[in-house]
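re: ur question from yesterday

yeah so i grabbed the chain u mentioned. its 263 aa long if i counted rite. heres the sequnce exactly as i have it in my notes:
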Amino acid sequence: MKSGRFWAWVVFALGAAYFFIPLIATVEFSMRMRRGVYSFDAYEVVLGDPRFQATFGYSVLAAVFTIILGVLIVVPTAYWIRLRLPQLRPVVEFITLLPLVIPAIVIVFGYIRMYGSNSPLPFLASDTGTNALLVIGYATLALPYMYRAVDTGLRTIDVRTLTEAAQILGAGWGTIITRVILPNVLIAVLSGAFLTFAIVLGEFTMASLLNRPAFGPYLQNIGANRAYEPAALAIIAFAITWACMSLIQILSRFAPRSANRPN
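ran it thru and got these structure tokens back, copy pasting raw so excuse formatting
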């Protein structure tokens, strides 16, 4: 028993070292911009850069629209499949896995080919259309994670019973989804939203080839031309990621309990 605990602590220590040593080294390197002393000059340069503010704001806004689009598509689809079309679930799961198999560069070149200025749907002929196409592309990349998060949440509740009870009370389909199903899978939706946010924030290929001022191309440009600023950006991105995870944990305490959870 004691031997098992010892090796468990050894494995934990090795895992913690594997995680924290590169992080500490990155923090230490990012603070060496000024010779001979540690400083936050690299962070001040990055945070004061107008391009950082513009690209980060653009990616955050794109992430918000991507999350909204993903929720509007995935929640009703996953709900309807679980309620009425369970035989199609393997087909839908296969379709949602395709973005993991098809590279993003193939998807974006398909977009450029299909929605160029000479096509019947010239999304790329305007900035608004290109932004909308980028959001659609982001939603496609995030589809496997959003769908599985929502599907896992639906497994924890009795969808059929909740639907029948709502229908007895006179609720329509829109009311059932927004006021009955969605609150019960809110944590699953938030998990999918966090993964979507992380994907959008760091995505490079689509934003670069569509020539959008997103955060991913900015990270690549800084990494190719600077020394200390990329390390500072990595720490900032890490802090944002953990802040989002903490926010999900906080929001989960205020979410309604599902039908299968004990009070």
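noticed a couple things. Residues 50-83 form the longest helix (34 residues). also The chain has a mean pLDDT of 86.
anyway ttyl
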